[in-house]
Queue: 4 jobs
Job 1
Amino acid sequence: MSGRLGIWIDGRPGDSVPSDDRGLQYGDGLFETMRVRKRQVRFLDAHLARLLLGCERLGIPAPDAASLRGEIASAAETTQGEAILKLLVTRGSGPRGYAARGLFTARRVLSLFAAPAPSIAAEGVALRIAGLTVAEQPRLAGLKHLNRLENVLAASEPGHENCFEALLLDTAGQVVGGTMSNVFLIREGSLVTPPVDRAGVAGVLRSIVLRESGKLGLRHEVRNVPGGELRVADEVFVTNARIGVVPVRSVGEHSYTMNGITTRIAAHVEALDA
Amino acid sequence: MSGRLGIWIDGRPGDSVPSDDRGLQYGDGLFETMRVRKRQVRFLDAHLARLLLGCERLGIPAPDAASLRGEIASAAETTQGEAILKLLVTRGSGPRGYAARGLFTARRVLSLFAAPAPSIAAEGVALRIAGLTVAEQPRLAGLKHLNRLENVLAASEPGHENCFEALLLDTAGQVVGGTMSNVFLIREGSLVTPPVDRAGVAGVLRSIVLRESGKLGLRHEVRNVPGGELRVADEVFVTNARIGVVPVRSVGEHSYTMNGITTRIAAHVEALDA
């Protein structure tokens, strides 16, 4: 398990939050999990852009971006080798009641963890299909918000410990993504990944892979993926800001032959400067 | 605004929780909001039963019921007149990651608030239909869990401050309930309320009203309620453990004639011993 190296609450060292914080009371907030490599946060701009978009969509007053960048840079400076920075932004403290009208001051919780460097598992990882079916809520889809009970339940299903990740389907049987990752299929040299406008999270690595695919000579499509399409894909991989691009060797009983496109994408993304 | 009279974390006075609490990180927990009247918590057994059922459904190790009762009774003893006790139970602190396997120790946050006695508004309150459509997640339906962003968004819509409550519909246009209440329709002397097995919360006052309806000579039905049925109901009321049975005078543009059944139920429930 990753060891915790430090916590800063609103920029100051600390390890607790007031119990009236709306993040605790209602899950009223957002988070980002970022990879630190050589004291630099990978894809920091993309993480902050998603966070600020989330604040806008939830009506949370956005923390000052310059302060955020300063705190993140300071934390990253203290690291050696690989680390993880988790930034949580809540609507802050408030009186009882759901309504978020009135003045709130967002609260920031920045936690730094030691982490081993992710190893690109060339042999691939095993996935399973979650028993839990994901609900569709367009108002929250795409956001990395703090209402994560579906993910908790899916990741706690029997047998999950034997898999790297579980893929979540919606009520129509379409693939949404993993509990902590986005998923891509490769079909005839093209990348396919599901949209994230009704459920799921708009992953930072997902957006990086989509952006980089052209440079690798690969077409990509964002479209609905029926669960059954997993069985006819040439390759499958999952993405996550912390672990990068991870080849999948099996989903449930179905196995894939590794033919190298995923490995090429993984190496390309890992080699990016950011 | 209600004043806070005290907070106890795991039975000890305190006002903060560790930032690695899963309630904050993932909304991984449950809560109860209870009314204290004459130093007694109303419907305590029903609140605790719902909480423990929620723990079971989420796989949260339930806090010891005797300790909970003791803490609640001690807090209630300190009150004069009316008060509100909010009990929050989270899965407790844990390492990063959604999976809830392994040993967790639930954390309890008990907050006591001063509150005016609810007044039965004989003239009724005004409701509106929320713009937000509720997602259906049977795995979470009925529970008073900490993933409440839908409620926050609905209660933060423009114009909400001019209403007592907003009614939420599902994607099929069926009534789920209010953001902080359950809803009942009266049709030809019968009570009708929507099921809470696909969305919504199984309110404690809702269960009390259903239980007591027979004693008042009223039939009741738990069944789907299309939004349009609100316009043909004879009376409408909402329920909530803190405020009791509240007559509704209008939903959006549609007004109701008060013909007394709601007032009778409200008075009966208010007069119950518990």
Job 2
Amino acid sequence: MNSSESFIACARQELGPDRVITDRDDCSAYERDYFGRSGQALAVLCPKSTAETSAALRLCARYAVTVVPQSGRTGLVGASTPDDSGRQVILSLCGIDQVGHLDAANRSIHVGAGVRMSRLRQVLAPAGLWFPFDIAADPCVGGMLATNTGGSHLMRFGDVRSSVLGVEAVLADGTVVDSLKALRKDNAGFDCKQLFIGSGGGLGVITGAVLALQRRPVARVSALLLPHSHERIPELLSWLEARYGDLIISFEGLSGNAIRYAYRAFPDLPQHFEASGIPDYVVLVELASAGLFQAQSLAADVHDSVAQLVSRAAIRGALVGDEADYWALRDAVPRALMKLPRVISLDVAFARSRLTQFRVAVQQLLSTQYPGAVLADFGHFGDGGDHVTIVVPDDCPTGATRLALMRLRVAVYDLVAEYGGSFSAEHGVGPLNESAYRRYTPPTTRRVHSSIKRLLDPAQRLGRLGMT
Amino acid sequence: MNSSESFIACARQELGPDRVITDRDDCSAYERDYFGRSGQALAVLCPKSTAETSAALRLCARYAVTVVPQSGRTGLVGASTPDDSGRQVILSLCGIDQVGHLDAANRSIHVGAGVRMSRLRQVLAPAGLWFPFDIAADPCVGGMLATNTGGSHLMRFGDVRSSVLGVEAVLADGTVVDSLKALRKDNAGFDCKQLFIGSGGGLGVITGAVLALQRRPVARVSALLLPHSHERIPELLSWLEARYGDLIISFEGLSGNAIRYAYRAFPDLPQHFEASGIPDYVVLVELASAGLFQAQSLAADVHDSVAQLVSRAAIRGALVGDEADYWALRDAVPRALMKLPRVISLDVAFARSRLTQFRVAVQQLLSTQYPGAVLADFGHFGDGGDHVTIVVPDDCPTGATRLALMRLRVAVYDLVAEYGGSFSAEHGVGPLNESAYRRYTPPTTRRVHSSIKRLLDPAQRLGRLGMT
């Protein structure tokens, strides 16, 4: 037996045959992510518990095998799928899907890394509780923590890190670090769990977590606001925050171009605008309240606010009420843009005071150097996030080649850096952003990163971080 | 010159004579903390910038001097003052008190580590903004981040960690780690700043930060609620959360004993209860709202809620309205208890579902083994925090000696561990909790702690962590 065969034989013996997948067809589901990127794995290991995860990692260490931790495969940066070598092992956490103790009085729940958001939602709804992360995809808890994801409500509830009370993780050598307390505060020493949150699985594999929950709001009201210009949106947001405070849970931005692509891809979408009258930029704001407000009275107040905002010339107008339709439009945008053949799609973040300047700079770049290319961005304006999406049509003279697309990508990232932004708002680095990491991360920070990586994973066998 | 004299001479030359304090009288202010604990330092270094902090740390490294980082000296665990050896150097960050860019649209501000909370409040008020940490003392930003503090609003706004966008820190060897972005999300690699938050200054010295701000609420209403029993408080809290959601920013608990000590120490305090009628336990709840509510209508709604809660037999009654008076009582409690001669004072935290059980266990411990000792606890019920305060009167037969007090302290900490709590909710470990750290922290966690400590501070010269 060669080393690979010996590894697989050993895995079957130590973990049990049903925990080791090697059949090519069976593996392929794990080798491909949400965006269709795929590689080829030596095998997929599917532990059902923390102890089995520890055994799997010890085995991989013994055989010096590189491990790609994986749960929901909804990431954007290629970090959860193997490369093409056929030598990397996928460690799927999807089997650790136990839903543990729901402590309603503490507003917390203990869950395994493989629990999907959709399932968590079902479990929590009867208790009137909510894990307040609204994400277009249906990720698992483990991946959400490993990438420290956000979603549409980040401006109100913070990133996932802010809602994690406890973490259980397994180091590359199989050591289990148990930090699973259900405490809102615990400063009895450095907070180890922070190392694993946002580490992309590269410092340790998260197997379980205790999550802090929110009360599920009973009244939700959304409105589509039509600002006079992009640069006046911060003023609009300040006005709304002064009035509604934390009742605002989403403040999303949609460019007119993004809306047009959505209507083109999904003709059945409710049409909110005359075909000729799609605005340059639209804001989708969502308010949510506990029992004190009924949706009806909250909506009445929003109507009143809209009238005031129009009279102050902060907006041209607004649509209030059909929230399901507005969110259908919002959700259709990324799905429509994904379908286009030549698209650059970046997930970046700024101080929200700088979003307009950045956007103007991108538009200037396109008009001068890539005429024909279309900025069809959308994103979470309220937390400074922007899904910069640039569509390069077939007839774009300068953008048609792969090299031209790569150059454009770098040029936009350079602008992100120039305006003080992050080249990865929510998805980590991964193979896709490896060159951006090298280009934009200060040397001192990279040295701290690599020294922590060497400390916890000396043989550098965990994860596809892209942080080299 | 001996080594100490040579160090001081060199410090004067490299940092400037006004940055080095050695006069015994001048030093003594820095050697003593809020609680009067004191040691003796070799010198106090007072850098005015990050570059000077880096120079100071390089110098200390060269002379192999132990450094005690310090800012507001309001900690509870002795970590910010030197030991008695006269060989440790205090590094005071109070001189780095620049208030930098206030970005109103982004709701963020850049501040130096030495900026006091009171000053920050003054700077933010005109902009209608707020750093939502309400702490009895007046700490500096640097110390708040280093200890990851909380305060009365933690249940609503999270710990300080949740409100930090960027950190600048200096490692023991003088390396500056700049992570000062003003971004609500940035996952372009492991989040280095999390290492420094809550590290007690032991992994690096925080010199500056970008803080996320909240809108300052315009309407605040407080009420003193008199629950029928401690064990029914979680139900009361759930009811209030279902009605008011995030309008609840504080939910504090005060034992009747704590209230009695406050009245005894401060006879001028407004008397809310008949002398004979101080309840066993009182809840102080605070609601805060942005512009949508006026205080008057919010108070009217609270009156209505109180009537409903009384009719549901969740509370016996309530006082609504004189919030300044209620908070005067709340603030008087710790000041009164500090003055008593024999007191055990612990800052612990639990899942809030377990606070009652823990409290009953402490009361049983006292009645069976320390008759005469009085549980006079108070704390942040809403986030699971409890300031367990046990007063041992002069005539207590079993508690009068220092040894007996130490035994009682350990016995209570054992109960904290038994009920899944943390022995240090907000203040870190420090010399005061060193033995608790050894007793309650799992070996694996301690190994991770010590390996990270060795990585960032190989000579172990930074801070008085108590984590050995």
Job 3
Amino acid sequence: MNIADVIHAKADGPQGQIFTIGPGDNVTTLLAALAEHNVGALVVTEGSADDLQVVGIVSERDIVRRLARDGAEILDRPVSEIMTTSVLTCTPADAVDAIAETMTDRRIRHMPVLADGKLAGLVSIGDVVRSRIRQLEHDRGQLEQYISS
Amino acid sequence: MNIADVIHAKADGPQGQIFTIGPGDNVTTLLAALAEHNVGALVVTEGSADDLQVVGIVSERDIVRRLARDGAEILDRPVSEIMTTSVLTCTPADAVDAIAETMTDRRIRHMPVLADGKLAGLVSIGDVVRSRIRQLEHDRGQLEQYISS
């Protein structure tokens, strides 16, 4: 099972769209966008719709940590000041178990998916571990069936 | 494998302590506590140390959603105004797979663990699914060994 399967499973559900924000948008706009789409993170992108460049990722965690440090003044600051710029990405061909391990080990909640360098999706640790659990349950079922037959 | 195993695994690591906050503490204090302990949620408790009563749970998500709605004024408001009061809890005896399913289905990230009605821990969806994956990998290994022998 690979990341393409995870993206396709999401594409059929309510979390199928990729939501993005610009680095120059402010944190108040970001808060509204997270609430509107009911998500915990957005990919920060620059460029035209058919050639989006990923410049960062910004999450609830980034907001609350900066709020703790700098207070309410961050609400007027641009997303570029609070986003994470060292973004680990994956591709549709990556194996789910490898990505699940990377996200768990490095405590990464969200990872953009790039296909031929273009933004193709965003997977969360939740998406990835759910796929991993389904795969393992399937494997166990197959082995049990093999033993009993 | 049950929730007691998850708590014991956490107790040996950096996330072993249970961090709590009072319903009367304000959101600025909450932000500082989340940053200090490097966690995403705290259990809201009342009462003396040997008889803590769980009155709610409060997370990064609660903060950013209320910030989006009400703006910076929430920073001075008490935790009781933004916390989630309908808290699903579990016990050390609960099976990990059942709790993993409940948390996934109901999109609950954190669940307090009560032992004899007393707060005994806090498990995250991450803790629970990691245990579930380890269990399934172990099961698969056993079955494969059985088949090859």
Job 4
Amino acid sequence: MTNVDRAVHHVRAGRDTIQRELKDLAAIPSVSTLPYHSGDMRRAAEYLAGALRTMGMHAVDIKPTAGHPVVYGEWLDAPGKPTVLVYGHYDVQPVDPLHEWQSPPFEPSVRGENMYGRGVSDMKGQVIAVLAALAATLQHGGGLSCNVKLLIEGEEEIGSPNLAPFLREHKDLLACDFSLNCDAGILGPDLPALVYGLRGLAYFELEVRGSEHDLHSGQFGGSIHNPAQVLCELVAGMHDADGRVTLPGFYTRVRPLTADERADLARAPHDDAVHLREAGNPPGHYGEKGYTTIERIGARPTLEVNGLLSGFTGEGSKTVLPCRAMAKISTRLVPDQDPLEVEAQLRDYLKQKAPPTVRWGLKVFAQTPGVLTPRDTPGSRAASRALESVFGIAPVFRREGGSVAVVSQIKDILDVDSVIMGFGLPDDNLHAPNEKLHLPTFYRGIETYIHFFANL
Amino acid sequence: MTNVDRAVHHVRAGRDTIQRELKDLAAIPSVSTLPYHSGDMRRAAEYLAGALRTMGMHAVDIKPTAGHPVVYGEWLDAPGKPTVLVYGHYDVQPVDPLHEWQSPPFEPSVRGENMYGRGVSDMKGQVIAVLAALAATLQHGGGLSCNVKLLIEGEEEIGSPNLAPFLREHKDLLACDFSLNCDAGILGPDLPALVYGLRGLAYFELEVRGSEHDLHSGQFGGSIHNPAQVLCELVAGMHDADGRVTLPGFYTRVRPLTADERADLARAPHDDAVHLREAGNPPGHYGEKGYTTIERIGARPTLEVNGLLSGFTGEGSKTVLPCRAMAKISTRLVPDQDPLEVEAQLRDYLKQKAPPTVRWGLKVFAQTPGVLTPRDTPGSRAASRALESVFGIAPVFRREGGSVAVVSQIKDILDVDSVIMGFGLPDDNLHAPNEKLHLPTFYRGIETYIHFFANL
């Protein structure tokens, strides 16, 4: 029996314990965007610090930032071997609309092959998976054959606003050969994948204001400009008839897809009908003309409305002419778009299109550039071989639609690339009600991480 | 001293008592659209029934409907004299956004010349004014020189859905020569007015649905149609560049303004700058091209967004692709538009414009036609003379932007016209935070009603 076999055997025998640990962590409502959860953020950080100490990590610490703290730990007893900086986050998305959950979001529960709860897939499940792999290797697999540093932050879901300063401040402590980012997924329970491209994110809140207060729609309707109407006009104008974003200059810096890359992406297993089912059965596809679904999601930039609010939204009717209207609007960016330039493009658009009969204001919540990582590095090869060992087939290299600010920040500040390997599934309902984790895939993920560290 | 003088004298001496009665009534949160206020609706009805009994009305009763009950009372001891059916309502609009109120909406408080509170102007103040006039005339003015029936309903703010059945059921009880509708206002503290035109109302809730649940905007954004984006496109398309409503056939039945009527409306005192100030200082005017502000408000139909809701609307950011988006949309109608036809026009518009990539649904909350009442009737002349006696100048005849379903229902079912006379002011913040009642105008209103009943 090899060391890897022993670690795998131990993990298989201890699944109940691992599942309980995930439930304990996922039961903590660590919603980073909501100020009243700050105590829960602290509890989640303390839970993880305790787990790191128990498994034998050294220098475990909850390090402060200007926002939520970072959990750190290290194991550096493999001199001469490469050092991996493992990245994860312990914060989660808000849970609303709460009434659509079939079980309470912070009471993780198992139904069939899945565990349901906020954060079980994004990404407390991924964090517990990599910790379980490290613990099993340290305690039952003959120890690690590489050096590991762990960085688990608490602000990923709000765009990691304090991570870059943290990386700069602790640049020496975090020095490494490459980073393993576990905040990712594969394409299906039997379709392993490695992500080499991530989209960037620029998130805005647009407010249109008319009067100083709400008005009676009969007294004033038809005589002043309704901010909700203006907001709708502004949002409607942000896409043209071909599904292209109309912000001036939005596509100027977009790196065109090469013929090779398009051929590669076309080889990835994908079925538009399956994609619609995973998307919760909308009546049809939509997107930028001239691109496939896979290209639209991973390789092309998008603009989406994430929220709308104006006037009366309760049951029944209220004949109010609202004084303001709000839209949350975010863009997903690809290399080489610059989120600061996108903000300027949105401001230009609003300056051109907003009528003089209203006032408007823009808040900025997140600005992360997109990133492409090299596909042929020692870390990448170790990950690829690990996936093939556990899943029986070689992984697909893919570009993902989501955004992980830290990948570009680690490249910029620590000057290392990231291997992006996690075990979420496309139908995990990330950021939505009834988020789930597919437990068989979760267990395969733990075994893959065991192989990955051994392969280095 | 005439009987009228005695009644007026009594009212002037008893202003504190009348103000206290208004405060007691306005302190009851009788919000008809919110189911959890049904107990408060009952309390408001009982308060009024008690007041009617105390002042000497007969046959006082709280009469059930399929919704909130109607308060009824009568005084029929003037044989051979005309019978007036006085109409009012005891329900009020919701109070949100609550945080914009400077004092609690259901703790009426006086600051300067105004009382602030939900319903103080629309229309508990008007109801208390007409009751105070009747009480003073009955008790101190030598009795009424006409017969009076009082009908105070509890569903005006939700479109009076059960009033027509009530009128039909109690047609004999409610038989009268004409109706006095107190749910109205004048143009300024020194600008008395009588309303001869009211707009109709058709109120809708449009929902656009995509997926069965919310999605991660990075995983699915750009590949399916965002319902919030589609909703914005649909709403934006409901007006053209000239501010005209684009629903197919919307203007077909609109009775054109005659040259005479336009000249009349142009003579009404109006200042666009004052109107903007009353509208809470938006940056400019807006409306249907080719019409004045007064025409836009009273004599032309409009379509307004009353509310928008979709996705994440809390603080900060959530990268969600919402599964649904909702807009509350209402149209104000003029003669001879038919609210049922307007519903069909909206459905036609949606069938033509909604893309096949989403589903949509429409709820209907109110359907009231617009109305024009004759300007030269005994009731109208009595009201005009009463206003001139108290305010010192003859009233302006005007068309109001608001909608009062009962005026057309009373015409259709009881076959009588309405005199529409109330004492709200344009800056009373109806349906909005910080609704107020101008107390000097309120007192003048009481005196005008005393003159009105005596003039008959």
